Amino acid sequence: MQQEIESLYSDHHGWLQGWLRRKLGNASDAADLAHDTFLRILAGRHAADILEPRKYLVTIANGLVIDRFRRQAIESAYLETLAARPEPLAVSPETRALILETLFAIDRMLDELGPRSREIFLLAQFEGLGYAQIGERLGVSVTTVKKHLVRALARCLALAAD
């Protein structure tokens, strides 16, 4: 396996880093994401099983680019909110890092829920709608709303336990 990984790396690393540099416009970020792409392959499957290496590498790298942009958007929104706070209420760098990590984890959890469960959870949590109101708005039964909300809340509890 190590030889396949070494071959995959030596044959395609430079190409992937160039592709990422063009996509991101930043050589440093491109190098980081190229490295992360190969780490994902090391953690995942055997390089010998990869039939179309560049297509496979682009798929992994593109997912990492999307994750990076999502994290940057969350961090930017948080920093804007933080900047709008009065100075005496500003948080320490340690607290800020914990809050950002929590927000990233919540974002991942919501992304993994599926569209229906995510929408039901957000309607209940942020708009304060009850089961019947959510069911009416989405055109689903109260039982369906409860099922999806239980799924979402179970994920929240698992996230809190971690």
TrEMBL record:
Residues 104-156 form the RNA polymerase sigma factor 70 region 4 type domain. It holds the Pfam family Sigma70_r2. Belongs to the sigma-70 factor family. ECF subfamily. GO terms for molecular function: DNA binding; sigma factor activity. The keyword Transcription regulation applies. CDD domains: Sigma70_r4. Keywords: Sigma factor, Transcription, Transcription regulation. This is Sigma-70 family RNA polymerase sigma factor. SUPFAM superfamilies: Sigma2 domain of RNA polymerase sigma factors, Sigma3 and sigma4 domains of RNA polymerase sigma factors. Residues 8-73 form the RNA polymerase sigma-70 region domain. InterPro entries: RNA_pol_sigma-70-like (IPR039425), RNA_pol_sigma-70_dom (IPR014284), RNA_pol_sigma70_r2 (IPR007627), RNA_pol_sigma70_r4_t2 (IPR013249), RNA_pol_sigma_r2 (IPR013325), RNA_pol_sigma_r3/r4-like (IPR013324), WH-like_DNA-bd_sf (IPR036388). It comes from the Bacteria. One of its GO terms (biological process) is DNA-templated transcription initiation.
